[in-house]
Amino acid sequence: EVQLVESGGGLVQPGGSLRLSCAASGFSFDDYDVTWVRQTPGKWLEWVSDISWNGGRTNYAESMKGRLTISRDNAKSTVYLQMDNLKPEDTAVYYCARIAANLGGFDYWGQGTQVTVSS
Predict the structure, then answer these.
(1) CB within 8 A of 26, min separation 6: which ones?
(2) With contact defined as beta carbons under 8 Å apart, do 40 and 115 qualify?
(3) Residue 35, Cα to own-chain centre: how many angstroms?
(4) Which tens digits make up the pLDDT trace of 30-89?
């Protein structure tokens, strides 16, 4: 069974940092690119970042560029999202998802982790 499990969310003050983790199981992790997507309180879904199967290619949303670092450890089947200088507008549920290149989309999602940025 394919599973993606996010962790690392929480309440942080503006300017603070969090590192999210996405632990994968049930498939050959290093065959897949992985993405992070967030859903804001207004329910918008916004793409945040993605990383290629070997970590050689990374992409970031313009709204968060310079404040994010995505990485992966294939030996641990885990993707990380380091978020720095967080802002209140970063408050959202953050999801990781497996990219299915043959479908042109995401085929498996985690349950999400809540990030709240507030003083």
Answers:
(1) 1, 2, 3
(2) no
(3) 6
(4) 999 999 999 988 878 999 999 999 999 999 999 888 999 999 999 999 999 999 999 999
